[in-house]
């Protein structure tokens, strides 16, 4: 329900605030006074495109703000899906800067227009005489059937089953498609895997073999250099170790004379031991260096295999080749297990389909059960609205399961006797559409919480008696749903629980559209002018007063005098 509306700097509106009544709000005023301007501003709240041309003051910011009471709407899931905080009171704001930049907010959180339309579309519904597209839509017609049947819970289960089935079917289809491609590649992948598996690759083997080959290819030089190093260090006749041994002996002789001599001796002894160990290791390495051409050839062959595989797979290390081998093993393994995986996926999809069809048939049965009552009620109320020969027939056919079920419905309509019903969008005139939409909204009002309904002069072109009945319908709807009706007919204006008057104020340099809530006496005068012109007679004024008093009395008794 719209609890408060603020419009600033929009078209002819400088500053306008409106706090609508929870029930039936009537808005009247002369043509061009600003009623359509106010609807345009509300349209911005619903996600309409913005334009800087609408700015009253081109240098200022346009702000449209609506405060909504969400009690009883059950749309928390929409806020969760859009990752918005939910609160019983919702503030929607739209801003247009002088540069043309448009911003939208829901509870002070910036949102895009798609999110704005999705949320605000559940809170307000504007219907005009020319708004024929919605009612002619098969999707909307199916929503009418679901709303009448109160299928909310059944739909929720169906949607869950449909998503589960679609996911299972996607898995099965993907596996089936992958199987075709993977089987084409299986022989080649198997060959590549076998080749890498046969190579018995180890992560550090290449570096080790390359180092060993380097030594083998330079074995003679290595042996000679190691032997020369050994002789320098440990030749029995003349070497570093012989000289160092003599130095240790000399220091040993004087170590008893002073502590520092003992320290020198110890250091010399340590160096002597270290050099003896070094000479031993060099000698050991010299003994291990062999001139082995066959081993060198064996290593070259192994390394050539590595280089070939690396070039083939466009990598540089054995580690990468090992990873490729593991991937190929997984691919080959998947192919070998494909049939089992596909069969499992098929069974899951078939079970999901069975469950889906049960939900679909339950939903379809619920829809079919209310089609005849809808046809009957629409025909009955259209008769009361001056269409005695009108016929509405709901055509149904079963389709493949989709997001909305297995049902396709088409509202077929005829306003004249002896004329075969045809698609509603093709045969109904603007006035007929208005009355059909009015009837549908009326019969749905008792089924669920509807958004705030705004009727924009949908009574255009109807007779006085029909206008009375349309007004009574609006009054009845407003008992459970907030209604705002823009009208030029006094028969409807008298039904309102609140009456607002839109007018132009020319007292300043620039015309401004304003709105004010009328008192009882002001309502009497406004309705009298709607009946008899700008200067109504006393009889007309009295008539207007009596009509309002009758409606107020009925309202206090909770009655509407409907049909």
From TrEMBL:
Keywords: ATP-binding, DNA damage, DNA repair, Nucleotide-binding. Residues 2-506 form the RecF/RecN/SMC N-terminal domain. One of its GO terms (molecular function) is ATP binding. GO terms for biological process: DNA recombination; DNA repair; SOS response. The keyword Repeat does not apply. The keyword Transport does not apply. One of its GO terms (cellular component) is bacterial nucleoid. InterPro entries: DNA_recomb/repair_RecN, P-loop_NTPase, RecF/RecN/SMC_N. It comes from the Bacteria. May be involved in recombinational repair of damaged DNA. Belongs to the RecN family. This is DNA repair protein RecN.
